[in-house]
Amino acid sequence: MEKLVLSTAEQGRPHPSDQALDRAVFALRMQRPAEAEAIAAGVLKASKRNVRAAIVHGQALMAQNRAGEAVVSLEKAARHTDDPTAATLLASALTAAGRADEALSRLRKIIAGRPAFPPAFRELARQLDLAGRTSEALATLEAGLELAPDFVELLVDLGILRQKSNDRAGARVAFAQARDLAPGRHDICAALARVMLADGDCTAAADVFRQALALQPDDAALRADFGRCLLEMGERDAGEEVLRVAANEPLMAGRIIMTLAASSHGRFFMRPSRAEQFLRART
Fold it and tell me: What is the pLDDT of residues 4-46, one digit of tens each?
């Protein structure tokens, strides 16, 4: 069977179908799956073997919780290409459609292929974890990292799963490795800082919290955790001021009050009015 590519270009200019699919992908990113579905369906009507269109169409259907229809679209894509992207997305759709065993079987075939396709390892680990097979999920991520040691998302998933398994030391190693590979990712810095804080290594955590906030200063939840870290270090004034800033964000006040009450260097308020007065104060 002739191998099909996901996009084409003629004389250096994008093909009209690629331009249409770019719009569909943008619609998906903007959480407009119905629009993306319509665009991809239009491309498929003109070119039934357009693999990229089938993939986008399947993703749009999945975003609308129409897994059964997504399976049909993605099965067609998987038949017309040996690109593992379509096969991995198909496995995800199969699981959502209640065909988990078939999905696992397909994913195991994908991860056995070479070159390694890290997203398939991630999807297989995700599905195994959802099935309560956490040790197998961890082993899958570790196997993926042996083949693709610089794939950041595998490390992030490994850190999350180790933390979920109460292996904070292992989680810390995974997040630290991911941070070294992607120092500009504030979410990775935040995950590393939080596991450090959970371990009681507040000084190291504070440094990483500062790195994360430098990358994403508007993250109120991150700022709240930084404030808690400062409180645990005994830096009460600094911690309280950080928490006051975080409390400016909607829905954060309750979390801040709980943080203050739970900290060994925090505060407890008998009346809501006193808590509100405290959060509005400035040092």
Answer: 334 433 334 566 788 999 999 999 999 999 999 999 999 999 8
Q: pLDDT digits over 191-205, tens only? A: 999 999 999 999 999
Residue pointed to by tokens 């039934």: 48
Distance CA(208)–CA(219), nearest Å, equals 14
Percentages helix, strand, coil for the chain (3-state, rounded to 5) are 70, 0, 25
CATH, domain range 1-97 = 1.25.40.10
Domain residue ranges in the chain = 1-97, 99-148, 150-217, 219-283
Identical fold for domains 1-97 and 150-217, yes or no, is yes
| pLDDT mean over 122-147 | 97
Q: Look at domain 150-217 and name its CATH class.
A: mainly alpha
Number of CB atoms found within 10 A of residue 251's CB: 7
Give me the chain's average pLDDT, please. Answer: 88
Question: How many angstroms separate the Cα of 13 from the Cα of each of 4, 10, 170, 220, 233?
Answer: 19, 5, 48, 44, 59
Q: What is the pTM of this model?
A: 0.83
Q: How far is Cα 190 from Cα 97, in angstroms, rounded to an integer?
A: 34
Rounded distance, CA 276 to CA 256, Å? 11
- Residue 141 contacts residue 161 (beta carbons within 8 Å): yes
The pLDDT of 53-62, averaged and rounded, is: 94
* H or E element, residue 114: none
